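Hi support team,

I submitted a single chain yesterday and got back a structure, but I'm not sure I'm reading the token output correctly. Could someone confirm the output below corresponds to the sequence I sent? I've pasted both exactly as they appear in my results page.

Thanks,
R.
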Amino acid sequence: MMQQGKVIDEPSDAICFSTIGFVYEVIRVLDGKLLLFQSHLERLKHSIELLKWPALSHTNTLYSQLNQLIELNGIINQNIKIRVDFVSGELNTILYPIISRYPSPNLYHEGAATALYTMERNDPNAKAFDNQMLIVREALVQSGLQEFLLVDHQGNITEGSKSNVIFIKGNTLYSAPDKDILLGISRSVLKNAVNDTDFNWVEQPISAKEIQKFDGAFLTGTSIHLLPIHQIEDFLIETEKSRVFIKLTRLFLDQIEKENMEDLG
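Hi R., thanks for writing in. Yes, this is the structure output for that exact sequence:
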């Protein structure tokens, strides 16, 4: 654990966090290397700006601190959380490895089970955690499902509780509008991956009553990359059998490798 740039051996020694919620990023470490650090850093800064907190002052040292944390903990394949709290008029930053659960290979073959959950986040573009999200996450654990798909007051599916969701119809990919969702890093990588291909990318409201018209649906996220959805409530969509989804996965993995090389300079 590292707080304000200093190594903390005992988590109990950390300064108390704010109780009003916090801004955070979860970065994947793959083969001992940070994945897409710059993209996560830009979103972290944007989240802080949206909440009108003071600007993060030590962004130029954050990369080296994260790598120090990787070395100290011998991290090979795990996620690291950057948590920023607003305490006594100042930003308090803490970095620490978290328990990281990646989908089993079987889940990619069988597809994820999901359900609809009516909720709208206070500021969709800010990656922030508060009591509202805590309730949703606890309900998800109790459900035994892989994800909840959030539905707004107009009956439209916006995103997952901890992921973005994309729907497939033919060679067209459908996502909720940017203003209604957290702009996920993996979603952005996918969007770049389908540029100059035969896929179309459409952003529009997606009615929960019209999910039967789609050929497939999948989740995107840091830990899952692209995860096919097999079921939404009682509707079986069986994306895992889709040749289109398999092609998208290949394009995504090629793009994430390309962007990570660019990220490292």
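A quick pointer for reading it: The two ends are 27 Å apart (CA to CA). Let us know if anything else looks off.

Best,
Support desk
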